[in-house]
Amino acid sequence: MTSDRDRLEKHLRQHLGLFGSPSSNQIEASRARIRERLRTAPVEREVGASRVRYGWRAGFVLAAAAAGILLAVAPMWHRGEWLAIVEAADGSRYTLGPNTVLNPTDAGLMLTLKDGSRVEPRSRSELLLEHAADGIGIRLRSGGLVVTAAQQTRGHLYVHTKDMTVSVTGTMFVVNTEDSGSRVTVIEGEAQVREGAVEKSVKRGDYVATSPVLATRPAKEEFSWSRHADVIYAAFIKGIAETAAPLVRIDPAGAQAPASRPEFEAVSIRQCDPDHLPETPEGGRGGGANSFHLTPGRLRALCMTTATLIRTAYGYGPVDLDFIAAERRPGRAMAFGNVYGLGVEDGRRVRGGPDWVRSERYTVNAVTAQGVLPDAETLRRPMLQRLIERRFDLKAHIESEQVPAFALAVAKGSLKITPVGPGACDELPAREGSLFMNGHPMNVLTPPRGFEEVRRGQKPSCGMWSQRNGPNVVIVGGDVPLEVLTTALAGRLGGVRVVDKMNVKDRFNFILEFALDENTPGLLRGGNFPERGAELDVAPGATIFTALEEQIGLKLERAQTAREFIVIDRIERPSEN
Amino acid sequence: MQATSVPTVAGEPFPCDFESLFEEHYVLVYRTAYGVTGRVEDAEDVVQTVFLRVLRREKPRELLKNPKGYFYRAAVNLSLTIVNTRRRRALTETNEDQAVSVPARASNRAEELHRKLYDAIAELKPKAASILILRYLHNYSDADIAKLLGTSRGVIAVTLFRARARLKTLLAASLGEES
Question: Is residue B22 assigned to a domain?
Fold first, then answer.
């Protein structure tokens, strides 16, 4: 009985506190935001936007009258019109007429427009509905909306912000507007976006923004507040994948190659004000200064030092992550749609040149010619290199130096595991958009098989998966080459590069269990999830060195390896746009 | 304590007693909401809603009597409503894509269990849910909980006992998987 209770209490403590305690910075940042919202929240309107059971027209009028909502109600009363049914998170509903300001304070509100379109406003947004010449218009004064526009044979749905207008039919899109500008992200279908006199068509998986700050914000953040954020994100990623499918690969040997070295058609480079750099959003989700974003045909770097730009263009990461950058695998390449926080080059990877290369920051926006859609790596590397060479007049070369490393080699007595053939592992279903490593998806829909089951004789899941067993780490491999261990071990060894000296090309199934001790500090990681399994009564395993030798027949030896760096021979501040 | 005067124009400074209420109870409400929902956005929504209610209404009797207890309970109830809303929407609107919610890694499995736990807690009586969260999220003792909620230690002990028993039933499957 007592042990049952202890067990339950242990689980309660462990899992109720899964998200841990917010940091004091987070608490203070939220406090400031909430105070501002409370200070500026119009209380009467607030009450009016609260829930009214079975409102419909009569109920809404009563509620509005009782609460003093700020309505331009005359047209609605006189003509008995409504343009939307508003449904609150608790299921209560009421109607909304034209020119009625809606300022929801609670999340989870959903509007169903008269034309069948569905609109989810972000809490604290301010919007109103109006008649348009051929449909319904939404004026979004502040905040954000997720809009699923109904398919119409005639007519459109319009969303107006202060600096752009979106017209759609049968489209799903997200609109956000704030002080710095507006952004439209198209999830499904296609939207016509007009900014001033310029009108353009935005396809699914792409977006358009009137401010560079908004342009480099991760797509996820545009709708992270939505109750359907996961579903929207999956659709957005699918859109990216599909719009990327008909890309015209720039290949010098190919008939469609426009030039021997692909270049951007239009480039804008602006210096950033060092005292007013765009802030990085909380939670390590990318964006802000030092962020880098690629979409089909477009590159954006926000307030990055020239050294960081050069490092990125030459395909290198920071020296501290050298053990990963050394692996030129597809999984490490950049992909469309993600926002990468690239940090600030610290002078170890890019050397030489004047000081401003490491201090002055620039925002770079570059687009390719119409119909020229290179893949993400072409944009990031040869095209960005060419851009820097032309606009910064860069001349640079690569040098290398010797640094301490580990070598992973076959131990005396040869390998203790045997190669496997096809069917030796169970393939896990890939999550949509997942990258593949060694032929197996990296992001999967079902959990990989546990090491206990594999030890009992079941097939491992394909790929390489790390699990905890009390104070130990267990790495389970299924149909993978042994070289995959180099990166995994490098991370566990604290970021020291591990060089492959095994000369083994076969694929293997294996289980490697070793203790987490002073040899395996790992990399510093964010998040505050509890160490799973740490509470189990399991004895510490062998050290990583002994475990490799005893369980797989490999050994780690101290070694030296070459590390490359870029030397700037000549560079100038960027030429005028 | 004086009665709260409700501001009528956006942008006016807070009434002074509202200011002190906010400063005194903000952290507890925020930590509670964050602990339950696991999302900054939701935690901020909860805090804003809780304090807006105070701004826009006459003060409830309980607020005058036991402000800390009032704010804590309001935070728990609203947070659980958000958790419940998420679950309802996930069930009704992603039924064709169930796989999206299937955890992929150990941390996701822990999140899944966390979600199940709060789903189960949301089925308890609000008072029991409040006590459980104080005990296991905030690590309050029985005496501290009794003091905060204005009741006796005996009531807390009995409520905890019953809540655990109910949770055990609700979670039998999940805990079994985890062991």
Answer: yes
